[in-house]
Amino acid sequence: MSCIFCKIINGEIPSNKVYEDDKVLAFNDINPVAPFHVLVIPKKHYESILDINDNDMEIIAHIHKVINKLVKENGYDKTGFRIINNCGNDGCQEVKHIHYHVLAGKKLDWYDA
Ligand code: 5GP
Ligand code: ZN
């Protein structure tokens, strides 16, 4: 499997993990665009939300739960944060393993690219 995030999950590529359980991994983005920039990914490989069907809703709910926990642990429930899921070419999705960016720690600009 050539997927870079699957390699991070199985330890072939190192990462700074901030949360892990049997279904989900969260780690610091290698190229942060905010003081807090974490990627939250399912351990099961899905290319994007287009691969998520009725049987996979639990993992999406679980990811939201993990994000809730991470932002509260870091105090960003008070100041705010942003969740981004890039999808496909126009969404500028570079890594084809579904991931949720969680950005916080500064006033985030709104932009479309
Ligand atoms: P995308 O553009 O696909 O939504 O975001 C992919 C993200 O993965 C980018 O923000 C990029 O910095 C991050 N990324 C790519 N390769 C690695 C890596 O090997 N380690 C970590 N920690 N982040 C990575
Ligand atoms: Zn993968």
UniProtKB/TrEMBL annotation:
Which intervals hold domain HIT? 4-113
Residues forming the motif Histidine triad motif are 97-101
- Which InterPro entries does the UniProt entry name for this protein? Histidine_triad_HIT, HIT-like, HIT-like_sf
Q: Which domain of life is it from?
A: Bacteria
In its UniProt entry, what is this protein called? Histidine triad nucleotide-binding protein
Organism this protein belongs to: Paraclostridium tenue
